[in-house]
Write a structure and sequence with these properties.
single chain; mainly alpha; 4 helices; elongated
């Protein structure tokens, strides 16, 4: 396995991936059942707002899942821990805090 000694981050990423997939599954299930209403329901705007919030959360979770998948691919390719902008190393402390980090601290600061 060409993960460059980042087995802890691999485990963290895989666990986070499973957690997010579970949340997405729950959101989809909840949307199908809990946000239905009959024609006499007076506050359909509340249901619409709740659906919008759930859809926004699902998009955010999907984006996070994409970041995790990208980090797992980088582990497989042996490029994990390299900044996608400058090519330098991402410090271990940053990877421990954010296993899916794509940028070193300097480049992340510039992109804000």
């Amino acid at each position: 396995m060409a993960d460059g000694g980042h087995s802890v981050q691999r485990v963290q990423l895989q666990e986070e991936r499973q957690r997010i997939q579970g949340q997405l599954h729950e959101l989809r299930s909840d949307t199908d059942t809990s946000l239905s209403f009959d024609g006499g329901f007076a506050d359909s705007s509340q249901v619409t707002a709740e659906r919008g919030e759930i859809e926004a959360l699902a998009v955010t979770l999907g984006d996070t899942l994409d970041e995790i998948d990208r980090a797992l691919r980088k582990l497989d390719e042996g490029t994990y821990g390299r900044c996608e902008d400058c090519g330098g190393s991402i410090v271990d402390a940053r990877l421990e805090a954010m296993p899916a980090a794509r940028l070193c601290i300097a480049c992340a600061s510039k992109s804000r």
